[in-house]
Amino acid sequence: MAKQQFQSVRGTHDILPDEQPRFKQVTATFAALAEEAGYRKIDTPVLEDAGLFVRSVGGDTDIVEKEMYSFKDRSDNQLTLRPEPTAGVARAYIEHGMSSLPKPVKLYITGEMFRYDRPQAGRQRQFNQVGVEVFGEAAPSIDAQVIILAYRYLRSLTMSGVTVQINSIGDEVCRPKYKKALVDYLKSRIDDLCPDCKRRLESNPLRVLDCKEPGCAKVVEGAPQIVDFLCKPCHAHFTGVLEYLDEFDVPYELNHLLVRGLDYYTRTVFEVYGAREGAQSALGGGGRYDGLIQELGGQATPAVGFGLGVERIIIELDFAKAPLPNKQPVKVFVASLGEPARLAGFKLLEQLLDGRVGAVGAIDKDGIAAQLGRADKLGAPYAIIIGQKEVFDKTVILRDMASGAQEMIPLNKIVEELQKRFAGA
Ligand code: AMP
Predict the structure, then answer these.
(1) Looking at the domain 332-420, which fold is it?
(2) Residues 174/229, Cβ–Cβ less than 8 Å
(3) Which atom of ligand 1 lies closest to the CA of 313?
(4) 170 Rama sector, left if φ>0, alpha if ψ -120 to 50, beta otherwise
(5) 17-174+230-319 maps to which CATH number?
(6) Of 31-45, 86-100, 110-124, 369-383, which range is least confident?
(7) Ligand 1 centroid from CA 114, angstroms
(8) Is 298 in the pocket of ligand 1 (CB under 6 A)?
(9) Domain boundaries in the chain?
């Protein structure tokens, strides 16, 4: 019987060595920009209590109803692979008493998320997000700051055509009034709604606004708009956010249908789009979630954040053929010729690595042409050639791989010489 061949689980992907430079560019650029803006990194476990997401994301959401990877472990704990980062970070904020830290507490994350989604381009079951969460500051300037950070980040990856869609979904004072007006309206058109939305009408009517079914979209065109229902403080907050955004060249559009699929949002919600059209083009989104910390048992704490999909950003950058940083960690290829040079080559290779000069060597039987061919393939800027004569003279030949120029350098000086040439690189 043929042995079983295993494949990656549906909806999951290997990130292969060739794909790592882009992945690293996307995650490392985010980390750098977030840290420059005063955010500190937090890693929370991939595994959380299932109840955390039911409580925070909300039981009537697609994520909780249909998309969570939940299971009982061997001790009967009901666990979930996190579908989004905010709930876990909020849990950690409370658990570690971070409310006693100077406010605002600015945190950033990068990591894997899991959703039982229908796999397609830009939609996986395991995917990565980068994101920020800011706790303890209610001012609209903070909403604007996180939106500008998302925008700056995508621009610094050389992405063009980035736009932000923004809305306010009010708070516990004004949203109920809006919900009622919306439900009254939707009930008058109930026959035109899809079965999901008929159900949502009772459980989560705001979600009808972003239903992609053509029938529902048509109904929604005539629906009351939340901006007309915002209470004074929510209205002032929203105008404040927009005023700050107007100070910068962040291209934003008001989208009164934007509600986001998670229950914990209050006031500002936004999504970020790339230049490519299509259903999967949302690169990320976020908003304010002033009630979440209290909902999870902490003190009332205003908060705002966003999550951006790493794989979606990568698709966008690859599509635009965005440049990759050209960092070549292997600086030199050590080629040795003949038996006596082999040991010298072996030693020199390790000395170079000790001296933090990236180096790879052929401690094997390849001829010089084959070895230089390998150096070329690796993209090493230099090759060191050691033959019998060089071992005898205690020298090496340093070859510039681009020009082919060669020079002779004493063996005991070569590490230092290369360190000098790559200082600061
Ligand atoms: P959400 O909180 O659902 O809006 O997700 C935020 C961002 O994460 C999205 O805009 C996507 O970029 C990314 N994302 C969400 N779900 C998936 C998925 N199944 N596969 C890949 N990326 C996703």
Answers:
(1) Rossmann fold (3.40.50)
(2) yes
(3) 12
(4) left
(5) 3.30.930.10
(6) 369-383
(7) 10
(8) no
(9) 17-174+230-319, 332-420
